[in-house]
Amino acid sequence: MKMLLPLTLALFTIGCTTTQPTVQAQQRTIEPIAQTVNPVKTHIMYYWIDPIHEGQTLMTTSREFYWQDGCLYLLNQHGKLAAAFPEFPKDAIQWNEQDKTLTMTNKDRPPKQFTFKMGDVIYTNGTVVHKKNINMDDQTPEDYKCLEFSTGIAALGTIDIEKYDMSDKR
């Protein structure tokens, strides 16, 4: 009997510490949270060209296309440049907000369209304006937001457009 008492006490102690209460907790229903975040609308920067002659610079530039926080950028080893497009012709630049793709139409007859997704390299006529040479007082608030964290502006043209898919190079 003396041997049985410690064994009984040990089993009783172990049983009491490992047994879970059988009271069932009340279930709570989770209400769906209403979306409070507004989708970001992308701002397209334009630069002025003569609406009659629609002249553009013929120098070439190429950079990797990138989208961030409602702004279009071109990336290279020196940083990111805010992308700007010619004001005319009006339908040469189209932005798809849902797919985050940029479609540029060149000036060929008949015109050709090029659609760029993030990571594609845009090779076209254009020039780069470094940030120190930009009069920030002349910029709209939306332009300023895009220029704030860039190293300048890549003024892209629509005369000579080529597309390079670099997604397999990473």
Describe the 3D structure.
The structure is a single chain. The chain has 170 residues and is mainly beta. The chain is 14% helix and 38% strand. The longest helix has 15 residues, at 4-18.
Brief characterization of the structure:
With 170 residues, this protein is mostly beta strands.
Name its key features.
170 residues, mainly beta, 3-stranded antiparallel sheet, 2 helices, globular
Strand order of the largest sheet: 2-3-4-9-8
Task: Provide the helix percentage.
Answer: 10-25%
- β-strand percent reads 35-45%
How many whole angstroms does the radius of gyration measure? 30 Å
**Secondary structure tally, helices:** 2
Write the layout of secondary structure elements.
Layout: H1 4-18, E1 45-47, E2 60-68, E3 71-76, E4 79-86, E5 93-96, E6 101-105, E7 113-116, E8 120-130, H2 141-148, E9 152-165
Parallel strand pairs: 1-4, 4-9
Antiparallel strand pairs: 2-3, 2-8, 3-4, 5-6, 6-7, 8-9
